[in-house]
Design a protein that fits this description.
The chain has 16 helices and 17 strands. The two termini are about 30 Å apart. The protein is of the alpha/beta class and about 450 residues long.
């Protein structure tokens, strides 16, 4: 099946900030894994709601409240459909971090005997095990550490190989009869590798463990069907998928959401309150206490409709072309080491790397002076850096609005880093790389 033509120039024109300059140069934005830029339709959707329909949802009988509620729930349906789910299977959160904490604290509440009878199966006992991989973001490590500390459970770690791929043999050793939760990332925010979800889910299902997927780095880049992946729960963040800040989603299989006790409590998530007891609404409202992120949800719906209009398969194909250019270009620069170099692995357009003899922060400043925005540090994933023997890295992460020219400007800048900082043997290599990239651009 042929894909629709992808007009990256037209896409770029939809993103106002990409017309800005940095350090007197046109901006090359390669930090979308941290936060993405927002198209005009997303900015307009939030502003339009606030100017024309703003009211509290699910709380009023007046016309404006009814209109706001309808828009809000339409947004839920749109975002749920984007990840292959039904509306009632999507809980609004303020981001993936909150979603992961919601799950961990809800399981902790089940351990305390809270919730419906079905919640008892989620309760942890001392010695039960929670499993994560070495490639996780801190947001998919720390909540499980805290849950283990509160319940007496044990946190176990599935190794990654030197090339960044998950060691499935080790996963089969770790995931056993005492495993109750397996939490893992769909795509590492350092390595860019699409992890083998089906194989990990099969191991977890074989022992009756709950699966929790961090889909932050896959939702913006891959056609996504969370129910089809077979995971029990999954989280994603709006601001990484061309949406606004302060909004995200928690997907859950209906029976799993129904078994989870509430995490935050208060208004909007109850059916009846006395001083003796409280009765809670069913999911998803059970997990949406307090004032809702209404304008943000509506803007996120505009984002997913924008992506669907482009076609996620076409977005993915465009980004795959960028990914190959980034990896092949960086691999050809002397003194650059790629993190997560697994051959043949499916990837998104995200690559972390180190430059021999130059600290990542210096590389980032060097690139910024040339108008190229990248991320430096350990990217809230310190353990994977430690596993690969580095303290920090540079991360270039592309998105649908990036071009080959963006990538080539980044590569040209990286090729000059070691020469600029006087690293031995780098001058000739840097000059050769710059000349080669200039020749490539002139030949196009």
């Amino acid at each position: 099946m042929s894909l629709p033509a992808f007009d990256v120039a037209a896409v770029r024109a939809d993103f106002p900030l990409l017309a800005e300059s940095v350090q007197g140069m046109p901006l090359v934005y390669l930090d979308s894994a941290a936060t993405s830029q927002k198209p005009r339709v997303v900015l307009d959707a939030e502003r339009d709601f606030l100017e024309r329909s703003n009211a509290a949802v699910h709380r009023g009988a007046h016309t404006l409240a009814a209109e706001a509620t309808e828009l809000y729930e339409d947004a839920r349906a749109a975002v749920a459909g984007f990840v292959g789910a039904a509306p009632d299977d999507l809980v609004w959160t303020h981001g993936a971090t909150e979603g992961l904490n919601l799950i961990a604290y809800a399981i902790g509440n089940a351990t305390l005997g809270r919730g419906a009878p079905a919640s008892a199966r989620l309760a942890l006992r001392p010695g039960d095990e929670l499993a994560v991989t070495e490639a996780e973001h801190h947001a998919n490590i720390v909540p499980w550490q805290e849950l283990a500390a509160r319940t007496g459970a044990i946190l176990r770690v599935i190794r990654i190989r030197d090339d960044g791929s998950v060691d499935l043999d080790h996963a089969a050793e770790v995931i056993g009869s005492r495993t109750r939760v397996v939490a893992f990332t769909h795509v590492s925010n350092v390595l860019g590798i699409v992890n083998p979800v089906a194989e990990i889910v099969a191991l977890a299902q074989g022992v009756g463990a709950l699966t929790v997927l961090d889909a932050c780095q896959s939702a913006p880049h891959l056609p996504l069907d969370l129910p089809g992946l077979g995971v029990d729960l999954a989280v994603f963040s709006g601001h990484k998928m061309q949406g606004p800040y302060g909004i995200g989603g928690l997907y859950g299989r209906r029976e799993v959401l129904a078994a989870l006790p509430p995490f935050l409590t208060g208004g909007s998530m109850i059916t009846h309150v006395t001083f003796e007891r409280t009765e809670f609404l069913p999911p998803p409202q059970r997990f949406e206490a307090g004032t809702q992120p209404v304008s943000q949800a509506i803007a996120l719906a505009a984002s997913v409709r924008y992506l669907e209009g482009l076609g996620m398969a076409a977005v993915h194909a465009h980004e795959q072309m960028l990914e190959r250019r980034v990896r092949e270009g960086l691999a050809g620069i002397d003194g650059v080491r790629l993190l997560g170099a697994a051959d043949g692995a499916e990837r998104v357009a995200l690559q972390a790397f180190v430059v021999d003899g130059v600290h990542a922060h210096d590389v980032g400043q060097f690139l910024d002076a040339r108008g190229v925005a990248v991320r430096v540090g350990h990217h809230c994933a310190e353990p994977v850096h430690a596993r690969l023997g580095v303290t920090a890295s540079v991360r270039a992460s592309a998105a649908l609005y990036n071009t080959i020219e963006d990538v080539d400007r980044m590569l040209e800048a990286v090729s000059g880093v070691r020469a600029y900082f006087g690293v031995d043997g780098a001058i000739a290599a840097g000059v050769r790389a710059c000349d080669a990239l200039s020749d490539q651009r002139e030949s196009k």
